[in-house]
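Bumping with the actual sequence this time:
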Amino acid sequence: MIGVLIIFAILAIVVIWYIATYNRFVRLRQRVKNAWAQIDVQLKRRHDLIPNLVETVKGYAAHERETLTAVTEARAKAASAPSPQEAIKAEGELTEALRRLLLVVENYPNLKADQHFLQLMEDLRTTENSIAFARQAYNDQSMVFNSQIKKIPDSIVASQMRLKEYPFWEIEEAAAEEREAPEVKF
């Protein structure tokens, strides 16, 4: 009789552990999805600002058609990315295209003084900062989730749930100069 109770108690503990672990994974997965949704909101805002920026620059720099086209195409690709992995790659390409556009702007002092352009640049700068914060939150949640699915014995439940790691949003090699501190000259 005591042997049966012990076996029943062990089974109850295993079932409770399994359910608690399963629920923890559900909660962690939702946190990662929420963090990605926050990035998505900021990226949508960024994508909405870009056509206005391109149109403003187009008025001053009509012969810079190739750069403007690259930004427009990169925006379309980023806006239609179906998965986080593809969105991360496409957003890297968009960042590069915007960087080239801003280099073109340097050649047009009248454009740099235009109030509409300055407001768009401020909106874009604010959005880029929001994206950076959202990206950090996403990476933090992904790290917690990715770590949890690898821990023993939780990895048993994770494999049964067919959970896969979420990708980190890292700086692309093309944008590696973002890692370096800017040089300040007076």
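The tokens above came from a reply further down the thread. Helices lie at 2-60, 65-79, 84-105, 109-113, 115-150, 154-160.
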